[in-house]
Design brief:
With 163 residues, the protein is of the alpha+beta class. It has one domain (6-162). The protein is 15% helix and 29% strand. The protein has helices spanning 13-18, 85-88, 110-120, 124-127; strands spanning 6-7, 21-24, 42-45, 59-66, 72-77, 91-94, 97-100, 130-134, 145-147, 150-153, 159-162. A hairpin with a 2-residue loop joins strand 6 (91-94) and strand 7. The model has no long low-confidence stretch (mean pLDDT 93).
Length: 163
């Protein structure tokens, strides 16, 4: 039976409320008859037991984002053995919209950054640092991810931050 398949950019808060852990199909489901319907951006609900071990696949896990002022919002991240922003790529849901802090080479667009501040109704000093923690019991040996702004890659091993 084919599971529910979702593209990364279509995942919503409701998806993570229904299922706190999602698995990347393209790196786990090679032998499934529906595998050809997937790509690198396709995820499915994790049917297995918790906590998941990040070394066994690429997961997206429900998380909480606690802003510098103590307010919190739901979100998700990719658990990784070491807390590294470019791999964990934490995201947060605010007012029905999803925001991210790692923008790769182009960075996070200025308009999206401004929409984020407007959605939370706060200035950068009240927002950052943001502490992301995964849902209790969802991940084996979880690491918190701390975000100090919006990042972009400037090379293979470096990044810069903007607020």
């Amino acid at each position: 039976m084919k599971p529910e398949l979702r593209q990364f950019d279509t995942l919503t808060l409701d998806d993570f409320v229904r299922c706190p852990v999602w698995l990347a199909c393209h790196v786990a489901d090679y032998d499934e008859p529906w595998y050809d319907e997937t790509d690198e951006e396709t995820f499915r609900p994790w049917p297995g037991s918790l906590p998941v071990d990040p070394s066994e696949g690429m997961f997206l896990v429900k998380a909480t984002a606690r802003l510098a002022d103590g307010s919190s919002y739901p979100g998700f991240l990719t658990p990784v053995p070491e807390p590294e922003l470019g791999q964990a790529q934490p995201q947060v849901f605010v007012g029905g919209k999803r925001f991210w802090f790692w923008g790769g080479m182009p960075g996070v667009p200025r308009q999206l950054r401004e929409e984020f501040y407007s959605a939370v109704g706060k200035l950068p000093g009240d927002v950052f640092p943001i502490q992301f923690t995964v849902e209790q019991g969802a991940v084996k040996e979880p690491h918190a991810i701390e975000v100090h702004g919006f990042y972009r890659s400037t090379g293979l091993t470096t990044s810069t931050m903007e607020r």
